[in-house]
């Protein structure tokens, strides 16, 4: 049987002029996995966009938004839709994770990129903080959202991190999983309140930590309480496998 040839994706002239602000792309030259959530362990490509609308003190990707520590001219670039699409289609990996920062800040520019990825047979996951209502053009087959509302312990004011209209849209879409970073059983109590208030399901809990030791310790603190609530539990595979290295 003859192997299928490359998928040709037609872009319009206007698409070629659309660009996104990108922090990094990885997974082609050095293969990697989705490290968190429902697709944990799946081979994946990552497009990490720059810029965020929150300023979480415990953020582990501050190079996407904290210009008191980083120079945006050094840690971000503008890349066109055809450029990003060609990069992703150079790999046979099916799953493309669009993350940040907060990727939905740039969602209008993401629409033609995602449409091109879907046409080529890829599937797409967005990692989002859940504060921005997704464009209807992104609520289509082949796209999933890993929504991570930031609870109080993450170091951001609740009036900024919890946007009811956005959470309700994600919950109603049937295309979202709600992934919370937690470090204590008290965090789980707040997660339960939010899940009840906004009908968030399914709930995934991820232990906080940027070292294997911290992940293990927090996992043991949370495991029984997460299991008792019949929630899903996820590790942070990229920390365990690659020591939280950038670009892995």
Describe this structure in words.
This protein is of the alpha/beta class and 248 residues long. The protein has helices at 13-16, 72-75, 81-89, 107-119, 158-161, 164-173, 185-198, 212-228, 237-242, and strands at residues 19-26, 32-33, 43-49, 77-80, 95-99, 123-128, 143-147, 176-182, 203-207, 232-233. The protein is globular.
List the helices and strands and how they pair.
Blueprint: H1 13-16, E1 19-26, E2 32-33, E3 43-49, H2 72-75, E4 77-80, H3 81-89, E5 95-99, H4 107-119, E6 123-128, E7 143-147, H5 158-161, H6 164-173, E8 176-182, H7 185-198, E9 203-207, H8 212-228, E10 232-233, H9 237-242
Parallel strand pairs: 3-5, 5-6, 6-7, 7-8, 8-9, 9-10
Antiparallel strand pairs: 1-3, 1-4, 2-3
Helix pairs in contact: 3-4
How can the largest sheet be summarized? 10 strands, mixed
Q: What is the count of DSSP helices, taking H or I runs of 4+ residues?
A: 9
Average per-residue pLDDT, rounded, comes to 93
Classify the secondary structure makeup into a structural class. Answer: alpha/beta
What's the gyration radius in Å?
Answer: 18 Å
Helix percent reads 25-40%
């Amino acid at each position: 049987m003859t192997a299928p040839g490359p998928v040709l994706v037609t872009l319009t002239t206007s698409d070629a002029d659309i660009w996104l602000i990108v922090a990094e792309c990885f997974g082609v030259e050095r293969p990697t996995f989705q490290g968190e959530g429902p697709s944990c362990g799946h081979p994946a490509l990552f497009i990490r966009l720059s810029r965020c609308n929150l300023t979480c003190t415990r953020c582990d990707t501050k190079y996407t938004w904290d210009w008191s520590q980083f120079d945006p001219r050094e840690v971000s670039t503008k890349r066109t839709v055809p450029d990003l699409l060609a990069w992703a289609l150079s790999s046979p990996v099916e799953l493309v994770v669009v993350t940040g920062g907060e990727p939905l800040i740039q969602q209008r520019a993401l629409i033609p990129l995602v449409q091109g990825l879907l046409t080529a047979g890829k599937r797409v996951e967005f990692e989002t903080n859940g504060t921005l209502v997704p464009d209807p053009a992104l609520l289509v087959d082949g796209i999933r959202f890993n929504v991570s509302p930031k609870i109080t312990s993450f170091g951001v004011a609740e009036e900024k991190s919890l946007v009811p209209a956005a959470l309700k849209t994600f919950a109603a879409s049937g295309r979202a999983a709600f992934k919370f970073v937690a470090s204590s059983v008290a965090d789980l109590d707040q997660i339960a309140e939010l899940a009840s208030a906004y009908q968030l399901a399914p709930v995934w809990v991820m232990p906080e930590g940027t070292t294997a030791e911290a992940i293990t310790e927090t996992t043991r603190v949370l495991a029984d309480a997460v299991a008792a609530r019949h929630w899903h539990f996820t590790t942070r595979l990229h920390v365990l496998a690659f020591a939280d290295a950038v670009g892995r």
